[in-house]
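Structure tokens please, single chain.
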Amino acid sequence: MAFCSNCGAKLDGAKEFCTGCGQAIQAAEQPAQAAQPQQQAAPAPQQPTYQPQPPAKKKSNTTIIIMIVVLLIAALAAAAYYTNGFGLFGNSGANDTIASTERPSSATYAPIATAQPSASSNPFEAIQIGSKDALEFMGNFETGMNLFREYSDEYFDVGMFLQANWFDSFGAVSACSLRYYIDLLIESKGGVVPSEENARLSDWDEIASLNMASPFAWAFESFALSAEGRNAEAETAWAMAMANPLMTEDFAETAALFEALSVGELLTAREQAAAHEDTLLDAAGSYRPPFERVAMGWSDVFYLEKGNEALIADGTDYSGALVWFRAALAVDPFDPQNFYYCALMHMEMDEVFEMFYHLEEGLRIAPDDVRLNVLLEVLMKVGEGI
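Here you go.
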């Protein structure tokens, strides 16, 4: 078995390009290079330098149709070439990361009073803008929640469901965390949390699992622990929140704003947070990472490195690596490298449908991404060689 002289990935004699790095396979490459094939399982992941943004203007239908036709032709060609069927009808659970196409209707909720909402168009900033009191915070919170829905709707309208789900689930963590924090404050002040037909989330780990990219479950858990006098645990939780670059130090002042409210005022704020919680949870997808939250759980690079470690330990553990790569994709569906690694693992496992799903979705995010286009070129050449 030959291995690529550039990245060390296993080579398939039927392919003209390395599926790991895209380098053309030279005839001179010999199996002697295979001494330690597992030491460089995939290209090193790169730390993204951007924040999620609303989608770009929709491409022309002609461009999208051409891309879909090309991908379908390549898929059929590859399936015909590999006589084992390439796992065409296998079910690896790829679709459970996708939000439902049954879109709930957006609802508009009025703030608890006439507080001037934030003028920010960035939902992350809107929630964390400094507020002089809880009333102003709830106005900013309202702006942030509505922006999450607007961003989600824009992605949904162009069929980019993973990205739409990311904004819905991120907003859901924010709303759930605030509502649960308020519940705990109400009880600590001797109040009674309203009983509801359907039980709401009341576990910080479970709330965080809605979207590991969000720092707000850690932040509000820290506030709740501090209110209970569990200061050491509160400091630990706050350190976890601050490990996420989306959290700011000034957000810590939010705790004092809510601790000063009466039970009646807390109940009013809870009603508003719960309304957003319901809407965003209805829209969010069902995927949850199959492991505990950690300080670096917000980082797709953290999960990509875990996937590479799985491949280094066992060069054929593609399904084990895929678990980590899918977690990276759930945390950041805006980075094409996360689609690339998922597509690569599905290709190694002969799962052509899932492979092309991730390849196509990655190219929608980044049509000029080198690795995705090299992988597509390899597959097209395979098809041409039938």
